[in-house]
Amino acid sequence: MTTGSHLDVETGRPGGGRGGPPEYEQAEVGNFRKDLALAYKTLGVVFGGLVTSPLYVYPSMNLSSPTKDDYMGLYSIMFWTLTLIGVIKYVGIALNADDHGEGGTFAMYSLLCRHADIGILPSKKVYSEEQPLLQNQSARAGRPSWLGKFFERSITARRALLFMAILGMCMLIGDGILTPAISVLSAIEGLKGPFPSVSKPVVEALSAVILIGLFLLQKYGTSKVSFLFSPIMAAWTFTTPIIGLYSIVHYYPGIFKAISPHYIVRFFLRNKKEGWRMLGGTVLCITGAEAMFADLGHFSKKGIQIAFLSSIYPSLVLTYAGQTAYLINNVNDFSDGFYKFVPRPVYWPMFIIATLAAIVASQSLISATFSVIKQSVVLDYFPRVKVVHTSQHKEGEVYSPETNYILMVLCVSVVLGFDAGNAIGNAFGVVVIMVMLITTIMLTLVMIIIWRTPPILVALYFVPFFIMEGSYVSAVFTKIPEGGWLPFAVSIILALVMFGWYYGRQRKMEYEMANKVTVERLSELLARPEVQRVPGLCFFYSNIQDGLTPILGHYIKNMSSLHAVTVFVTLRYLLVTKVDERERILVRRLGPNGVYGCTVQYGYADSLVDGDLTAQVTSSLRRHFETTTEEGAEEAARLEAARMAGVVHVRGKMRFYVGEDAGWFDRVMLGFYEFLHGICRSALPALGTPLQQRVEIGMLYKV
């Protein structure tokens, strides 16, 4: 967001005749204003889930005859959880582990892969010719650390790391299902206070209608949504602590004594196993914190830090203090812990604000889900789905129609299908802490492998956070039979989809590499008397980097022809966020006349191609002709004549033929891959090629 002015300041160069410090100060003021504007927008998208957690934390705890000391201990646990995980872990450390502006577990995985050879898929390895580009985008250079060398040597460790990144993504998607469900349902249950006759089915139906409306708004993009929602969230963020302060003064002014950690020790000594089980409810106070990191691509690090430290954190500390002060004097009102502590004169205004805020809360994880789905599609670990960029100015703002409507169906099903809000809370706790524990482990790897942090500082981070989050994980696992099974079911289904896709892509890549067509073999095929060169410009798509796809030999043998100008196009993913415009399209000659190679390079925050691919490639070829040989004019004329004769885009579609002699694992996994491949989107529409110019050639590969 602000790297341009930051780099200028670092160079120390004056900016012209009237340059110098005044210009830099002006730039810094402009950047600060931009960060403030982004901080305001984050209220509507990033922090919705976190700041509305008071709606459901106490009702999810299933307390049994609580006492004043119990509430003091619970508040102390929530205060230190917010402080340690929210302020220190995410705001202070995790936001610095971005991959050039993108956050989340997949961004950290990509960051780790770029600094050590720990990728899995052959197609995702970094090639030597990419090094100049990668060096410009690397945070650190030099030899791998001891841990990096361990991962490079151990395929098991690399697979475990990939599984961890996949699990983090799957859990975050589970969060995207549960956040809208629990937030909206908890808000609408406020109707039962003044109207006890309102039944549970009515509350669920109203919640479902609100959620459907929210998902239908997603296609308009994050910016439009956040400017619509940020005023609502600001109203919630600043009114709840005011009520909290009123409650503190009115019910229990000494509540802040609970900040002392000795109340936590006394809580566990007194409640023992039951106190440990209550951690499954208190963990919900930090729900949505992962969205700070996962939504980083939508906003900026400074904007998120400003918003959290100046408004979100103080608001939550005061709101929970006010709720706890009320409950100390009304110990059995925990099942409706939010609405009961709201003073009667402002009940209805707060109900309206709470309902609107719950809708906004749902937005944070929906946006994060779009981000991680887009990242995993680009990484080729997930079947292709449509991804729409909704902003011309912010690359991270994306929307996926298929993902959106699947989330909507699942979210409404949770609201209508679960018997109680407590069950959703139990499921929610599992998701929240699992994602955070995975982030802690991967962040530790980033510290060791990339940042080269001194071991004592790594230990000071890892040990306390692993113990704290590990304790939470052990507590929420007891909730699995009571609703916690849902995120595991969703995660297992998603992980199976991702692994099935990954396995099929790996097997296909292995076959293509073993049977690739070399340039010499292509020359032999074209030298055959029956093979003719026909007029036209052909773009032939290939998956492999070194050599040509086996489908080419299949095509030439059966068609006995090749277009006068044929360009073999390879899409190459680089382990970077964005590829420089000058490095996007690379062209070269391949030997036979009129045959060229083209590599389209992209990072996971890039669109594959912006604009007309044909025009961009032909333009690159013309520049190549002008700078390489004396025959450039002749080649340019041949290219133009071929383009005028007609353009065709040829894509090979290699299918697996699973024979009777194949093992059961191959039969199951490759059959599943073929099913996924058949229902997912083609790569060609993502390149913007016209439908009438597309040709698909099938080829069977016997396993």
Low-confidence stretches: 1-19, 122-141
**How much strand content do the residues show?**
5-15%
End-to-end separation in angstroms reads 49 Å
Number of domains: 2
Compute the number of strand runs: 8
Order of adjacent strands in the largest pleated sheet: 5-6-4-3-7-8
Mean pLDDT: 81
Per the principal axes of the C-alpha atoms, what is the gross shape? elongated
- Summarize the main sheet: 6 strands, mixed
Q: What portion of residues is helical? A: 55-70%
Structural class: alpha/beta
How large, in whole angstroms, is the Cα Rg?
Answer: 28 Å
Number of helices: 24
Region (Disordered): 1-25
Transmembrane segments: 38-59, 71-91, 160-182, 202-220, 232-255, 275-294, 306-326, 346-366, 403-421, 427-451, 458-478, 484-503
Subcellular location: Membrane
InterPro entries: K+_transporter (IPR003855), K_trans_C (IPR053952), K_trans_N (IPR053951)
Structure, described:
This protein has 703 residues and is of the alpha/beta class. The protein folds into two domains: 56-197 and 229-361 and 423-501, no CATH class; 516-702, no CATH class. 61% of the residues lie in helices and 9% in strands. The protein is built from 24 helices and eight strands. The chain has helices spanning 3-11, 21-45, 48-51, 68-93, 105-115, 131-137, 146-153, 155-188, 200-217, 222-251, 262-282, 290-294, 301-329, 347-378, 401-417, 421-451, 455-476, 485-514, 519-527, 550-559, 613-628, 632-645, 664-679, 683-686; strands spanning 388-389, 398-399, 532-542, 561-573, 585-589, 595-602, 647-657, 694-702. The strands form two sheets. A six-stranded mixed β-sheet has the order 5-6-4-3-7-8, with helices on both faces. A two-stranded antiparallel sheet has the order 1-2. It is elongated. The relative contact order is 0.13. Residues 1-19 and 122-141 have low confidence and may be disordered.
